[in-house]
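Worked example

This section walks through a single chain of length 415. The input is the sequence exactly as stored; nothing has been trimmed or padded.
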Amino acid sequence: MEIINKTILPSGIKVITEKLPHVKSFSLGFWFNVGSVDENEEYNGISHFIEHMLFKGTKKRSAKKIAENIESLGGYLNAFTSKEHTCYYGRGLEGHTKKTFEVLADMILNSVFNENEIRKEAAVIVDELNDIEDSPEELIFDKFEAETYKGNSLAFPIIGTEKNILAFTRDDFIDYLIKHYNFSNLSIVASGAVEHEEIIRLTEKYFNSPKSFPSVQRPLLNFSQWENRFVYKDIQQSHIITGTITSGYKERDRVIVNLLSHILGEGSSSRLFQSVREKNGIAYQINTFLNSYYDCSTFGVYFSTNDKMVNKASGLIKSELEKIKEKKVSEKELNRAKEYLKGSILMGMESTSNRMIRIAQSELYLGRNKTVAESIEEIHSVTADDIHLSANSLFDENKLCRIMIGSKNIFSLPE
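Given that input, the structure is written out below as tokens.
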């Protein structure tokens, strides 16, 4: 049974922990409710750049010292920026919670943002951007959400643009930190060999100066009519996404779409994998996806194949979408998808990092702890009728957006 302790400190910081008596390690995350969705065109990419810079030195630690202080204890530090959150986290062995916490706190509170380091890291991030540009299987997802969310900040790529990356200054970073890295925007989450009271004591010790400012309100989403897009790249394969917008993280319907996604295109037994790859042998990569945010998600089908097979693969995919719209899934197929989804949740719970991330996301999206039992009950409650209704809503030709990356615009788009 999950036992989650949560304390909201007078500063506004949320401390949430899960003690696991049977493990000898822990995962500790500092979560800021800020990401590329909080940016504008001029500042797109700054959240991700700041994430990089916090590892580049503090008033008392060099970048090398930051790494050595944790790795010398058998631990690990990392971070990631998403469209809605930024997380700085550490993994460590039992007994090293205090040191891991102190190093992460030092990074967040005392990073110096040296001008020389900013310029060096800008070059590193431009290289990262170029890697994405050279990877159509990654780039296409940015292009897809840029179109489906156009007119909204969710459309911005997390990494930003080369122009912005090279233009950011130390003052830009400091101003952005003051605005977004305030205590009321911070959740400190830990799972594993941790004590709740110790995390509270450490939080009160290091985060002891008031940094509470009004939270920045995110604008309401306003969806525009999207268009099909072709992006030229001199590559051998064509990459295509067909998809649309659906329910967000907080909606029950997301569970239905998640199961629909598993039935259609997740796993080797899925309909699309069997039809497009196994029976016809015309695509190595073929899968569905569900990228979820607070108010909405993007759902779609992604595949890559050679130019000669694009239209055939597209026809097979369209046929499978029509089939699942016309005929309800069998109980056997639905139960198989439910077990697949349950298995991914339960196996993920064997990792303290996954548990920490799950707890944090539950807090950030729902404001409470959503238990594993609750998630599994939601999965069990989905019916074949639910899947049928969802498929007919999602796969309306008028709602589908198509993005293609390739050397030839040969993708036959329906009128």
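What to look for: The mean pLDDT is 94.
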